Write the structure tokens for this entry.
Amino acid sequence: MISAHTRTLAIIGDPIEHSLTPRIQNHALRKTGADIVNLAFRVAPENLQKAVVGAQNLGFLGLMVTIPHKEAVLALCDELHRSADVMGAANLLYFRGDGRIVGHSSDGWAALKSLEEAGVRVQNQSIAIVGGGGAARSLALTFALKDAAEIRILNRTVSRAQIIAAEVEKLGVRAMAGTLSEELLQNVAVLVNATSVGMTPETAQTPVPKSLLRRETAVYDIVYNPLETRLLREAREVGCQTVDGLGMLLYTNVYAAQVCANVEISAQEMREEALRALW
């Protein structure tokens, strides 16, 4: 129940109606007894600055940020946490008590937590990432900082893959760029889908044909709706270890509550609530 003392943490994006964050985070927050509520607001790009300033003036704890605002919000920050500085994007704005806005990026951290929980190692491994957008960039740089041996960026527009590969190489990690092919998937320990291909409602699609999957490769899909995408289903049929995208969502929520409210919320509680929502 919301009272005059309830504090607010919100998520903004465009669109935002599909987001599970308010439901799962509020469920976990109630379990802690914290008088905090998470609300979702659809914010068009032209209203971004007004929305951020308004939320801060209203006393919000912070804003979780999703597509398409993760890069644009950097200009509204007074400070950048190292995570956001390295990634060149922020998915969390912390409204600090002194009035300053601090940008954070937790996508990479959340992905690593998901992989580590599944026993999938990044360090000293060859990793292929399908995609050329912000998610692909964030994961590529995160894995590079985690001492991956090699990162291959596979995208239909090779020029975008080359930009990410060049950034990875600046961090001292070998990188390759190209389109999806059997050759570039050879001897890969981890294959990551960092695109929205296969997401509801287009569940019949897959970013990687089954014929290119090898059982020795762990397959990670950042899509969480459906929980088992066609890519993961076919990877499981081949004999691959698979990791779904729900953990990445859960741990971005854990991070936001920690940073903005100093509250520890349970990823497991959120997973159970997310599964109720998805089923």
